[in-house]
Design brief:
With 676 residues, the chain is of the alpha+beta class. It has a domain at 405-661: 3-Layer(aba) Sandwich (Rossmann fold). Strands 29-30-32-31-33-34-35-36 form an 8-stranded mixed beta sheet, sandwiched between helices. A 4-stranded antiparallel beta sheet has the order 1-2-3-4, with no helix packed on it. The protein has a 4-stranded antiparallel beta sheet with strand order 5-6-7-8, with no helix packed on it. Strand 27 and strand 28 form a beta hairpin. The relative contact order is 0.08. Residues 1-25 have low confidence and may be disordered.
């Protein structure tokens, strides 16, 4: 029986329908900071042996536990499904060679351990129960074993010292090594045996690769886990049963990421090939036959840093940047011919996973209008991607801001490229406020992608919705533009970088797009250093600046950082050899000129850019009576990797620049404390 609605209810329904239709016709509602942080993000694609399915990870935000939680999903032509569901994260999915199992690591029981789960269904089986966290792992070619790396336990002598004297650290002496283990996989339901160590000694194992016959493992190893010891990496091989290691590659500079040839006769790897300045010089793909020590370099003609993926019957595959884009490449080990594999000329592809025969590839891709998702494709020079994940649907109702690459000439005539973000309702002929967001590195790179580069520190899309332009300059030293371009800031750090930023602003002002008097700049790490340089040496150009984990004094940085070789290579001197170059390239040298309101953000446990840099800049600005605020993120190192810290950093930056670029509007929530 149908109930007749009263007239007043009919009117209400009609009004509601009219109101809803009106809402759908309105402009899209811009996201909030929490909306940006709540975006699900995909990664770590692993293609199945038959090429039909892809395992991948999806990261979500858990505000209750203040963490980013990651689970493993699987997608194919039939759709997608979540494979894991635990209180903590599951990471690094890897298919067994027969395609029946996926192994992964998870910290669901505390320390990160190894698990496997059947594709046919059921609960995950825990494979290891050690006291130390597992890092890298890989199935053997026959699927009966898994090799993995794990740190050595804390030495008994250290435990005894701590019992007597408390918590001490002997710098460069209390080093824990990390070694390679092999675990035999029992039949399902059977008890797992303890893994056996196959390497030992005073070195740290990094990446490794099974030989095609499963009898040996090639691995890179370095003197310690200290970042400064990365240049000591060499390559050895060891029997999968354990025993003495055999050195394969030993030369100055880093040699890493070994990959066996399909016939097991040679090993490919990434090498600095004895170049003394590997921080900014190109690495190459090289090969060696175990026992010969005669190294052949293959990719000298390729003017970028290759990231080796696999050696297949179709050649050696690697990923690399090309200006602001990135692609899959292959190199023929005989002819040295390089082939690019891409679906479009302007594409941003990464995290490749190839089938053993290189017939299919899975990867993450994005572009100027495309949010990052997982795709799979047959391997051909023109890829034909099929979508696997569907996280792009999250931003479908948000404003469609645009991104384009712009180029300009710097002060010394070097060509610089950058990503220009425009609001969805951009109007030619109108002058906009400009926010400059500077990437880290310096060998980072900004790419034209939506809702990605901003998350964690800078709310780019909120400023676009507010009516601003955002420029992300790929200043000299950025990846993707070749070795000569990366070398342009050698003994010119900060100085040339600032030229590139300021000339980019001038370019947009001359084009009639930017209001010269409403410009702000910000960045994290090397971007923070450049921002500190701008706030001191170029103070007249900016209404406000934000310095995130930035260097303020190269002398202070050099004696505190965990990567001392960085400054020795870029400045080609220590502070004792050439104090002038350290002074010329340090923001603190120009502190007397500072007058731009400056926000400083820094993790109080940062080892890469230690916190004395923040205090030095803060006190210098206070002494000049410059409005400044120092925010210390307690317990954080160089990155901010928890959602509440990211929320705080973004809100602080939003408030800071709103206050100085839109003073009439005021702050969105009010400052988190006052400035001096």
């Amino acid at each position: 029986m149908r109930t007749k609605l009263p007239i007043r209810n009919i009117r209400a329904v009609v009004m509601l329908a009219w109101f809803t239709a009106g809402l759908s016709a309105q402009s899209p509602v811009p996201p909030t900071i929490d909306d940006l942080l709540n975006l699900k993000r995909v990664g770590s694609p692993a293609i199945s042996p038959d090429g039909a399915s892809v395992a991948y990870t999806v990261r979500e935000t858990n505000w209750d536990d203040n963490e980013y939680k990651t689970e493993v999903w699987v997608g194919n032509a039939s759709g997608t499904r979540r494979l894991t569901n635990a209180k903590k994260s599951s990471l690094q999915p890897a298919w067994s060679p027969d395609g029946n199992w996926i192994a992964f690591v998870s910290d669901r029981d505390g320390k990160r351990q190894l698990y496997q789960i059947a594709m046919a269904g059921g609960e995950a089986q825990k494979l290891t129960s050690g006291t130390e966290a597992i890092n890298n792992f890989a199935w053997s070619p026959d699927g009966t074993r898994i090799a993995f790396t794990m740190p050595d336990p804390v030495a008994e002598s250290v435990k005894e010292r701590e019992r007597v004297f408390g918590d001490l650290r002997l710098e460069d002496e209390d080093r824990r090594m990390e070694h390679l283990y092999v675990l035999t996989i029992p039949p399902h339901g059977m008890m797992v045996n303890a893994p056996r160590a196959v390497t030992s000694g005073a070195f740290v194992v990094g990446s490794f690769n099974w030989s095609p016959d499963g009898r040996q493992l090639a691995f890179d190893h370095r003197a310690s886990s200290d970042a400064a010891d990365g240049g000591s990496a060499d390559i050895s091989i060891v029997s999968a049963e354990g025993g003495n290691t055999r050195l394969v590659v030993e030369q100055p500079g880093p040699d890493s990421n070994p990959r066996w040839s399909p016939d097991g006769s040679r090993i490919a790897f990434v090498s600095a090939m004895r170049k003394p300045f590997d921080y900014y010089q190109n690495a190459v793909i090289a090969t060696v036959a175990p026992g010969s020590m005669a190294i052949e370099s293959l990719s000298d003609a390729f003017d970028e840093n290759p990231q080796i993926i696999a050696w297949t019957p179709r050649g050696i595959f690697f990923g690399a940047s090309a200006r602001a884009w990135s692609y899959l490449f292959g190199i023929d080990p005989v002819t040295k011919r390089v082939t690019r594999y891409a679906a479009a000329a302007e594409s941003i592809d990464s995290a490749y996973s190839l089938t053993k025969d290189a017939s299919h590839v899975a990867f993450v891709t994005s572009g100027p209008t495309d949010f990052a998702d997982i795709f799979r494709s047959p391997v051909a020079e023109t890829l034909t991607p099929t979508r696997v994940s569907h996280t792009a649907e999250q931003i479908a109702a948000w404003p469609r801001h645009t991104r384009e690459l712009v180029r300009w000439k710097s002060q010394d005539h070097a060509e610089i490229e950058g990503v220009l973000h425009k609001p969805a309702d951009f109007q030619a002929g109108r002058r906009y406020p400009l926010l400059v967001v500077i990437h880290g590195g310096p060998t980072g790179v900004s790419r034209p992608v939506p809702y990605s580069n901003s998350v964690g520190y800078y709310p780019i899309d909120l400023w676009l919705a507010k009516g601003a332009l955002v420029l992300e300059p790929n200043y000299r030293g950025s990846a993707g533009y070749g070795e000569q371009f990366r070398s342009l800031n050698v003994r010119n750090l900060g100085i040339g970088d600032a030229w590139d930023v300021v000339s980019g602003i001038d370019h947009l002002v001359a084009a009639g797009m930017v209001d010269r008097d409403r410009v702000g700049a910000m960045g994290w790490s090397q971007g923070g250093y450049i921002s500190a340089f701008l706030t001191t040496k170029h103070a007249d150009r900016f209404k406000a600046v934000s310095v995130g984990a930035g260097i303020s004094n190269w002398m202070t940085y050099y004696v505190n950082t965990d990567i001392h070789p960085f400054t020795r290579q870029y400045l080609k001197a220590t502070p004792w050899d050439d104090p002038k170059i350290y002074a010329d390239t340090s923001p603190m040298t120009y502190i007397k000129s500072a007058r731009t309101p400056t926000l400083i953000q820094h993790g109080d446990q940062d080892q890469r850019v230690p916190v004395p840099n923040a205090f030095e800049l803060y006190q210098g600005l206070r002494d000049q009576n410059v409005p400044t605020q120092l925010v210390l993120f307690k317990g954080f190192g160089h990155p901010l990797n928890k959602p509440k810290a990211n929320r705080a950093a973004m809100q602080q930056n939003l408030d800071w620049f709103n206050k100085y670029l839109w003073p009439a509007a005021g702050s969105t929530t009010g400052q988190m404390g006052g400035e001096r």
